[in-house]
Amino acid sequence: MTTKAEQYEDVRKQIASVIAGETSRTARLATASCLLREMFGERFFWTGFYEVDPNQPDMLVVGPYQGTMGCLRIPFGKGVCGAAAATGETQLVEDVHAFPGHIACDSRSNSEIVVPVLDAAGKLAAVLDIDSTEFGAFNVEDQAGLEAICGDLLTIA
Ligand code: SME
């Protein structure tokens, strides 16, 4: 049986091999959202990125994703994505309805994990947001796997 850690290792390799040499940030993020969703299927109900708006540095704007329509903009500090952007730390939320200021883009989401994505200079460029319709769908194994992948996304040459 394939463990979750093995699945993350596998999808990390897939993503790294496809994005190597790619200069477009959109192409890199789109590839990651696609391959993550392909690996984990329905459990990853919404899988994608909010990018820091270059014209408004305290604002996230939706980037490449797989899933139902996401909100277009999220201010830093608002909801789970905004908390990850403001603190620079992964947010692992077992019940989004209990999270202060949670933004319900789709009422079917019940838990989520949001991981910061830094550029090659170490500056926040985006956050990876994964939502599930299950409560408590994500744990520290998901956190470790996704943080490793996010560490690669904008740094692999
Ligand atoms: N639930 C998120 C908003 C983004 S979406 O669900 C696609 C949040 O509170 O940050």
- The helix-strand sequence is HHEEEHEEEH
Query: What is the percent of helical residues?
Result: 25-40%
Q: Radius of gyration in whole Å, from Cα? A: 14 Å
Seen as an oligomer or otherwise, the chain set is single chain
Q: Care to count the β-strands?
A: 6
Instruction: Identify the bound ligands.
Output: methionine sulfoxide
Total domain modules: 1
Uncertain runs are none
- How many helical stretches? 4
| CATH class descriptor | Alpha Beta
| Strand-residue proportion | 25-35%
What value does the average pLDDT take?
96
Largest sheet entry: 6 strands, antiparallel
Can you offer a commentary on this structure?
The protein has one domain: GAF domain (Beta-Lactamase, 2-Layer Sandwich). It has 157 residues and is an alpha+beta fold. The chain has helices at 4-19, 25-40, 79-87, 140-153; strands at 46-53, 56-66, 73-75, 91-93, 111-118, 124-132. Helix 1 runs antiparallel to helix 2 (25-40) and helix 1 runs parallel beside helix 4. It contains 4 helices and 6 strands. The protein binds methionine sulfoxide. Residues 46, 70-71, 74, 79-81, 102-103, 105, 109, 112, 129, 131 line the site of methionine sulfoxide (SME).
